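Weekly puzzle thread! Below is a chain. First person to post its structure in token form gets bragging rights.
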Amino acid sequence: MKNIRGLTALRGLAIIMIILYHLFPDQVPGGFIGVQVFFVLAGFLLTVRAPKVMNLEEAGLFYGKRIRRIYPALVIVLAVCVVVMPFVAPNALGGTFELPGILLGLNNWWQLYANNSYFAQINNASPYTHLWYLSVLMQVYLVWPFILNFARTVKKHMTRGMADITLGALVLVSMMPMWVMYSRGAEVTRVYDDTFSRAFAVLVGAYAGMHLPSKKEMGLRQIAFGISLAVLGVSMFTLHGESAVTYLGGLQVTAVAAAVLCRLCAAETLPAMVMDRFKPLGFIGQLSYELYLVMYPVIFLFSYKKVSVTPVNVILELAVILGLAFILKVITRLLSSMSKARLSFPRQVRVCLCLALVLGCVNYGITMNNKNVTSDSAEEASESTATTTTTGDLDGSQVTLIGDSVLRGARLALWDTMPKAWIDSAQNRRVSDAMDVLYYLNRRGRLRMSVVIALGSNATFKRTEGQELIDYLGPKRKIYWVNVYGMYLGRQDATNKVIDALAADNDNVTVIDWASEADTHDDWFYDDGLHLDSEGRTAYAMLIYEALEKDA
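Winning reply:
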């Protein structure tokens, strides 16, 4: 089937949203909906380009096309990362089995298994974090022939109206896993990365692809085009990755809006044609897959190296992303044109398995040379190595500490200095989670007169969010906020500026300057540059203790 005009530009819009989100997560908090647009586009195109009969032969051809489309560029990016990252970011490749998981289309499950938070800014981060999307799509591809044949069977044995109602109802049912998982309190990354909670967007696109419109009633369609585009634009700036609205309606609405845009592009409505004629958007759309593959490793590396977010550096970052994507496109096209004979589907599968094994072995060799301790193993280490001793009269009976995995790893050292302190800490905890923690502690009578907040490492936060915590604690409590430090924490300075501003605005808030204390002690950190070894935990605990003792 020929190219559908306008869809290339829509792909361009989607990848721009995603890149802006990763570059400016605070300014474009909902840019991740670009992935939702990609899912819908995939379902739409799978349907409109499907063969008339999906038998075993056609299914084999379908899988072969998907492999040839996905793997050449993906393997090149992974190979470059494996070779380059050990030199420029030696501790970035942390997961021994992450690469095989990517090549086998299981990366989203790997990330969930490793408890990697998609919305954490550096903790457990990887240059491959964005490839969860590709894995979800590959899993959908695997069952797509069965889905297509089921839909066609329904349409064959029912009237057109009943078939449309039945398939539409099934698409609505496919949205339920996201609603149920979020409503039951699952961690947002679990909801965001899970195949069963995200596949509905592909089905929404597929349903739209089964109902291609004619070219009549152009006026109404132009209005629908404008409304759908506005929905995506507003969502881009208003949705948040950890907001209930996102999972209980936001992603569903954006999927429908993207499906409407796909249908209108297929009908060649005037706005779609205007968008299609905007050449820069079309050029970006043609590079959308390559841009998606290279953008996150580049952004990750800039953040890892703590490159400041200035206009010049952002332009440089975008230039690098665009240049690498263009080079990748040229290389994959050359490889495709040089291939005289296409491998059969079974051989393609064997090649993928061999690549997974080879890259996995290389990655294993690299990671074995690193001590790369995660927050969980750091906690285990802390159970047996904390040796801090109390140096004063402060026993912690009036102290509550709230924090993330850094505080959690140091909790034994803190209890050695303040044996009666109440410590509430959790991995991947962010400032946005803290209000619920305060409510809980207050109800149980555990919110004492001195409160230490050790949050900010996992994500940036707004000044209003921090002020909300301070207002809830009230002016009578003394609040100590431990600022953040990470050897590769890209937004450390921005986060600490917010903490400093909160202290300046509130007389009862004191900053515990962990960033200055830790800056000259790289030897205190494990290879992730964030979590602390025994000596670091002792220093961390003593710094907090001394700040509290000074005001005791």
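Puzzle host: Confirmed. Bonus trivia for everyone else. The two ends are 75 Å apart (CA to CA).
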